[in-house]
Design brief:
By secondary structure, the protein is of the alpha/beta class. It has three domains: 7-179, 3-Layer(aba) Sandwich (Rossmann fold); 187-431, N-(1-d-carboxylethyl)-l-norvaline Dehydrogenase, domain 2, CATH 1.10.1040; 438-467, Single alpha-helices involved in coiled-coils or other helix-helix interfaces, CATH 1.20.5. The chain contains 19 helices and ten strands. The strands form two sheets. The chain has an eight-stranded mixed beta sheet with strand order 3-2-1-4-5-6-7-10, sandwiched between helices. A two-stranded antiparallel sheet has the order 8-9. A hairpin with a 2-residue loop joins β8 and β9. It binds NADP nicotinamide-adenine-dinucleotide phosphate. NADP nicotinamide-adenine-dinucleotide phosphate is lined by residues 12-17, 35-37, 40, 77-80, 83, 86, 105-106, 131-132, 134-135, 264.
């Protein structure tokens, strides 16, 4: 068995918790488990099969913590929010110095910062850990983003590195910074995921509703793209999903699904934090907004009649779609990394962007062929800290932006909504203009509020002739 100095416990055997527990056991570690509904922990023994040799179940969280020998590290895999606070409140009186609480859920990093301060003030160790890859990732190797002190990370490092996904032998897990750093990076990961999913769906929409192509045929195109510059988990699963058939009706599986998406918060948090940090995450914001609009299903159905907008056909080649998606994806990543940079400055995390790109290369939902180049770009000289200006990406953008422009123009002309693709294009067009139109905004602000403006080559606090 793997040498193990820290007793490991896991609380919350839902989708992610049970998969992560099996992964931990698979890697030779002994594990204690408990669940709110105690019978779930008992049933988990059957699921663990031969791995149950290293498994000890307990009727509850406190019973588990009491039964474990120190030093103890207890992973919480419960919904973010009150369940985490409740678990901490239960654990703190039972644990002792040297023990660690690890929140592995999708927690708001502000909560992690608060909890780190509260728990560590009591002499315990607190770790906020982002885990990406869904159930499959948790079971066979997720991407893991750890926040906490370095000493705290060293205590759990062997387990984390063992259970993480591997990319060409390198584990897709690392200690990224103190307190909320891991959860923040996971949040932005999810924000980029929202944007990428929305952009893929927008391209699908054009092929489907603007060209009348069958889902399976579109799926085959995505499958082909997964062998090129767009190679990624999300393009791969899109190809698979679109080619699947619903057994009950014989229809394409995608056609029996209501077009109303849910969201749990991480996409929205990315946008909120971006705005607070004075950053633009327009592609991510468009994706979060599109999910919000999707929820208004009944109104949209009525809107077809009330507004009477008629969608018409588009003439776009698959090569143009592919290039447009590549450009938009680069922009989504670039916006995500700008948010990370702004937060790193604000909270003094000293995030290693190249390493973040590396640990996203396997195990997580946004793994893609671009991440190697993103990592290399951050290790090199990045003009103005902008990923879009790194030579490898500037070249690709110059080559692919014309296609993005044609796709967005065709979509807009034919009444197909492409909010994320057009937000990406607007961002890149703005970043490619040395002189924009904010001069007029400044003039308006000075006019109505005497806010002043910086005169070109002159005083920083100038006023316009309207004040003379
Ligand atoms: N699903 C994913 O793809 C994914 C990916 C990355 C991160 N995450 C995050 O991982 C965490 C767990 O997600 P999941 O998908 O595994 O959820 P899940 O399948 O719904 O499981 C939730 C688990 O938490 C327990 N629980 C729920 N409310 C609780 C409470 N008030 N007190 C104590 N335990 C409670 C449940 O226990 P009972 O059996 O008693 O109901 C169950 O064990 C969340 O933070 C989620 O955002 C999920």
């Amino acid at each position: 068995m793997t040498t193990q100095t820290t007793a490991l416990g896991l609380y919350g055997l839902g989708t992610m918790g049970s998969a992560l527990a099996l992964n931990i056991l698979d890697n030779g570690f002994a594990l204690h488990v408990a669940n709110r509904t105690a019978s779930v922990a008992e049933a988990f023994v059957t699921e663990a099969g031969p791995l149950a040799d290293r498994l000890t179940t307990h009727p509850g969280l406190v019973e588990m913590a009491r039964a474990m020998s120190a030093p103890r590290a207890i992973i919480l895999m419960v919904p973010a929010g009150a369940p985490v606070d409740d678990a901490i409140a239960d654990l703190v009186p039972v644990l002792a110095k040297g023990d660690a609480i690890i929140d592995a859920g999708n927690t708001d990093f502000h909560d992690t910062r608060r909890r780190t301060a509260e728990v560590e003030a009591k002499g315990l160790t607190y770790i906020g850990m982002g885990v990406s890859g869904g159930e499959e990732g948790a079971r066979h190797g997720p991407s893991i983003m750890v926040g906490g002190t370095d000493a705290a990370y060293q205590g759990i490092r062997p387990v984390i590195e063992a259970i993480a996904a591997k990319f060409e032998g390198d584990h897709c897990a690392d200690h990224l910074g103190p307190d909320g750093a891991g959860h923040f990076v996971k949040t932005v990961h999810n924000g980029i995921e929202y944007a990428d999913m929305e952009m893929i769906a927008e391209v699908y929409g054009l092929m489907r509703h603007g060209q009348g192509r069958a889902p399976a045929q579109i799926g085959a195109v995505f499958q082909g793209w997964d062998k090129g510059a767009l190679k990624s988990y999300l393009v791969e699963i899109t190809g698979t999903v679109l080619q699947a058939t619903d057994a009950a009706t014989g229809k394409p599986a995608v056609d029996v699904i209501l077009d109303r998406a849910g969201q749990k918060g991480t996409g929205r948090w990315t946008v909120i934090e971006a705005l607070k940090l004075g950053q633009s995450a327009s592609a991510i914001e468009a994706a979060v907004g599109a999910r919000g609009w999707s929820a208004e299903k009944d109104a949209r159905v009525a809107g077809e009649t009330i507004l009477g907008t008629i969608r018409s056909a588009v003439a776009i080649s698959d090569r143009e779609y592919q290039d447009a998606l590549l450009a938009a994806r680069i922009i989504a990543y670039a916006q995500g990394f700008r948010i990370l940079a702004a937060a790193s400055d604000e909270y003094q995390w000293s995030l290693d962007y190249a390493r973040i790109a590396e640990i996203w290369r396997a195990g997580c939902i946004i793994r893609s062929a671009l991440l190697d180049d993103i990592s290399a770009a951050f290790r090199g000289d990045l003009p103005y800290g902008q990923l879009i200006f790194a030579p490898a990406f500037a070249d690709r953008l110059r080559a692919s932006i014309p296609a993005l422009r044609r796709v967005v123009a065709a979509a807009v002309s034919a009444a197909h909504p492409v909010p994320a693709l057009s937000a990406s294009l607007a961002f890149i067009d703005t970043m490619a203009q040395g002189r924009g139109t904010t001069d007029l905004i400044q003039a308006q602000r000075d006019f109505f509020g005497r806010h002043g403006f910086e005169r070109i080559g002159g005083a920083k606090d100038s006023h316009g002739p309207w004040w003379e």
